[in-house]
Amino acid sequence: MISYHLWASLAAIIAVLGLLTLSHVKAYHAGAAAERLTTLNRSVEVLRERNATDDQIRNLDDAGLCRELGGLPDECARFGL
């Protein structure tokens, strides 16, 4: 027959392993949530930059757009440079 001390030791080991597992799972989920938040914040930042770039491009005339896209001076001259 197994002694009381052995059962108590096994129960304590199982409890500690359970707590460590729970702690690991919670830390993993917290890290995953933090990474999702970082990704979302970066996506919002990229969209804001893109909107600013779109506004700048929208305000260019044909010659300015040609210059911004790297057109050669003689090519951009057709657009009124």
Report the β-strand fraction as a percent range.
Answer: under 5%
Distance between the termini: 99 Å
* Unreliable parts: none
Shape: rod-shaped
Largest sheet: none
Q: How much helix is in the residues?
A: over 70%
Instruction: Please provide the count of β strands.
Output: 0
Structural class: mainly alpha
Organism: Aquamicrobium aerolatum DSM 21857
Protein name: Phage shock protein B
Structural descriptors:
83% helix, single chain, rod-shaped, 81 residues, mainly alpha
Descriptive overview:
It is a single chain. By secondary structure, this protein is mainly α. The protein has a domain at 28-81. It is 83% helix and 0% strand. It has 3 helices and no strands. It has helices spanning 4-58, 62-68, 73-77. The longest helix has 55 residues, at 4-58. It is rod-shaped and about 100 Å long. It comes from Aquamicrobium aerolatum DSM 21857. This is Phage shock protein B.
Q: Can you give me a brief rundown of this structure?
A:
This is Phage shock protein B. With 81 residues, this protein is an all-alpha fold.
How does the SSE layout of this entry go?
Elements: H1 4-58, H2 62-68, H3 73-77
Protein name: Phage shock protein B
Organism: Aquamicrobium aerolatum DSM 21857
